[in-house]
Amino acid sequence: MVQINGLFNDTDHVITDTKGCFSIIEHTRDLTVSPETAMREYFMERMEVRRKQVMAMMDGRVGITTQAGAMQWTAGNVTATTGLKGAGDFLGKMVKGAVTKEGAIKPEYRGAGYLVLEPTYKYILLENVDDWEGGLVMEDGMFLACESTVQHKIQARSNLSSAALGGEGLFNLKLVGHGVCAMESNVRREQLIEVELQNDVLKVDGSYAICWSGSLEFTVERSGKTLMGSAVSGEGLVNVFRGTGRVWLSALDDSSSLAAATH
């Protein structure tokens, strides 16, 4: 039997969301600071910049797959495996990892007990994968964990040549099946914009789309019908989503543009 004290009954740690076997623990105060870091921690607390952790309460029936190196601690009868089912599975995961820039080997935890992941200052998004038509496609680096009933696949851009020309990745990780996943986002859920498409088109200039329905056709195209039209609009290439499904936009964060501006 496992009993955890100082977590569920402590106001310094609160659970902000729960889906499936996952819960998000937000640390409302961090008093483990030094004189050198106290001022920074004070203003971070005032701005609600807090560390968060994903905790999975496992009942022995459903395993948890995580990004490599994400585990902080486990309690109870919980064991870790590579999640590999043979040499062919290993080769397939190596290929997926290479093209999606995600960790090739994702450990899988099974048993009954608690699994707690490393703390992060990023925002955690918990989503039911089967709520997304055609699966849930996400940008590189967002995957944190999922229930083992969720399958990992690759989704390619419909026009690979223009994606390469636009400096975008050619492939994205797609989760399909039944279960819950945890993703890391630079923007909190309340500030994400959801665009629902019913046999329509969404065009986005920049890497503001963080996840979208696998049912959507995803291409990279010129913003105008001609090269002259693209030049006049000042945009060039844009990401285009067509069909029926939804897209989450992180309109206050474009990591690629920020990186370019700071170099």
Q: What does this 3D model show about the protein?
A:
- This protein has helices spanning about 40-45, 85-100, 160-165, 225-235, 255-260; strands at about 15-20, 20-25, 50-60, 65, 70-80, 110-115, 125-130, 135-140, 145, 150-155, 170-175, 180-185, 195-205, 210-215, 215-220, 235-250.
- The chain is α+β, with helices and mostly antiparallel strands and about 260 residues long.
- It has one domain: Double-stranded beta-helix.
- A hairpin with a 2-residue loop joins strand 1 and strand 2 (about 20-25).
- The longest helix is centred in the middle third of the chain and has 14 residues, at about 85-100.
- The chain is globular, with a radius of gyration of 20 Å.
